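Backbone geometry:

***
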Amino acid sequence: MTRSWFITGTDTGVGKTFASVALLHALRSRGLAAVGMKPVASGCESTDAGWRNDDALALQVASRPRPDYGDVNPYALPAATAPQLAARDVGTVIDLATLLQAYARLAEAADAMVVEGAGGWAAPMGDGLEQCRMAHAIGGEVVLVVGLRLGCLSHARLTARAIAADGCRLAGWIGNRVDPDFERVDDYLALLREALPAPCLGVLAHAREGEAGSAGRALQLDPLLGT
């Protein structure tokens, strides 16, 4: 059976893709066929192959076996704004059934699926489509990426409560040092460990996207895999 995790964040810009790619590499290091997905991506560039999004491309490259881009990112939207607005701009309706069909094709060849949401948990994927619906459809297990910066404690606690209220399970969280100058980071990590009802899977150093592969070694997968 394919194991799946829906990756969300305490906000936009907290490093969900960096953490998702690190998680893919960590899963692959366990000998698992691990595939990433970015169901809806706004902020895409036009290429000879069609609209492409950097985050989705990073997930595609980190996946083994290598999936088709169209399944990794079924909805590639040009405008770099909220998916609802980006979809309206081009007259597109984000359809959950279409997303799940692409997910099913990816999952056929995968032991583990890493599905990255858009923005924070409460940001809709499209008009009338909350992220929790996609999360429920793939198993309801959520990994929260916490951007370690001022305000993260409140954002993380509120997000954890919202995940539970939406009937999903917070399987773990990853700290990401998005602000290298953030003071008392260890104290904040201690507070987060006390406050969040799920284990910390690791803390990622402030780094570039290209370093996510090595960052995967900082993640502890036992809580996710039950080993």
About this structure: The longest strand covers residues 112-120. The mean pLDDT is 95.
